[in-house]
Write a structure and sequence with these properties.
alpha+beta; Arc Repressor Mutant, subunit A; three-stranded antiparallel beta sheet; about 230 residues; about 45% helix; single chain
């Protein structure tokens, strides 16, 4: 009897594992959606940058927007990815990983300029607007949007306004720290349900590593534990 791997053909090719055709056997129904290398990469990007839109995911994974849209539709139909918002404003997330209060905040975090501004403030609180624009490359519109959502606070210092990470950021970060263990179990259950043989490891630095094994080869994925820990980006 031939030993069968839990990894599908697309992912086996990515791992460099030979695909041995079955001898006259009827093909299986259809392999797990996450056994496709591109789809797995998109799933990982949605987990790490929740509430991203199609354009943002396309830039992150290096796949054309129409292809990203097609894969997301497949993942959504299978319940592996959820969506919020109408039409081109749709934003994607992993079901069970966030609540309503997260959506407007994480939608902002999906933008590179927003994350850069927040990362600068986490590293050096109290920057003026000019300093923040210079260190992060953001613009005034980015700063105003972050202030409007309570993600950064403004303190007047004479003629200057100084910016600090806001209460919303700290509160949501604490909430997700408490939910980290449940999120890990949910992720492992999802991968297992999809037929992937997964082992988890904690490398530190705010990440969870998932190793997908097949024979002597392995594919390691990195998932961010807390989307609000921007100081670690």
């Amino acid at each position: 009897m031939k030993e069968r791997s839990g990894l599908g053909s697309a992912l086996r090719r990515r791992l460099g594992i030979p695909i041995i055709p079955s001898s006259g056997a009827r093909p299986a129904r259809s392999e797990s959606l996450l056994m496709n290398a591109t789809r797995l990469k998109i799933f990982q990007a949605v987990y790490n940058l929740p509430c991203s839109n199609i354009r943002q995911l396309s830039l992150r994974v290096g796949v054309a927007p129409p292809s990203v849209s097609w894969h997301l539709r497949k993942l959504s139909e299978a319940g592996l990815v959820g969506a919020t918002g109408p039409g081109r404003r749709r934003r994607f997330y992993i079901p069970g990983s966030l609540d309503e209060e997260d959506v407007p905040v994480l939608s902002l975090f999906a933008g590179d300029d927003m994350r850069a501004a927040l990362r600068s403030l986490c590293q050096e609180p109290g920057l003026t607007q000019g300093q923040l624009i210079h260190t992060s490359g953001c613009n005034g519109h980015t700063i105003r949007a972050l202030v409007a959502h309570g993600i950064i606070d403004v303190v007047r210092d004479g003629r200057n306004r100084r910016y600090y990470p806001g209460e919303v950021l700290a509160r949501r970060s604490l909430f997700h720290e408490e939910r980290a263990r449940r999120s890990r179990q949910h992720l492992l259950s999802t991968l297992s349900r999809e037929g992937l043989q997964a082992e988890s490891a904690d490398p530190g630095g705010g990440f969870l590593e998932i190793r997908l094994r097949s024979g002597g080869s392995a594919e390691t994925l990195r998932f961010r534990r807390n989307p609000y820990e921007l100081s670690r980006w």
